[in-house]
Amino acid sequence: MPLFVVNRTLPGITPDALMSAGVRAKTCCAEMTQEGESVRWVRSFFVPATEQTHCYFEAASKEAVEEANNRAKIPFVDVAEVVEMTPEAV
Q1: Domain limits at 17?
Q2: How far, rounded to the nearest angstrom, does the alpha carbon of residue 6 sit from its chain's CA centroid?
Q3: At a CB cut-off of 8 Å and minimum separation 6, what does 29 contact?
Q4: Would you say 44 and 56 are in contact if contact means Cβ atoms under 8 Å apart?
Q5: What is the pLDDT of residue 75?
Q6: Over the chain, what is the mean pLDDT?
Q7: Predicted local distance difference test score (pLDDT) of residue 3
Q8: Domains: count for the chain
Q9: SS3 47
Q10: C-alpha pair distances (Å), 31 with each of 1, 2, 17, 24, 51
């Protein structure tokens, strides 16, 4: 399944608000999957120095990832398909 990165800028976000956003993302992905549109939140990285997050999702399409994030009410700058590289794969 394709992998996507969701780039966000979240100025002033608190640790509690960040955790709440994660819960909403997880819940919305589960709901969409039950509805027949498979979306899975894989992981996120938060960069405190720049107040940015990079969140990775598996889904059939960019539109499905956008819908999951819109349902979760988590703002984003953009969504792009990525190619995963790991030390084990190189």
Answers
A1: 3-89
A2: 5
A3: 39, 40, 41, 57, 68
A4: yes
A5: 96
A6: 96
A7: 98
A8: 1
A9: strand
A10: 18, 19, 21, 10, 28
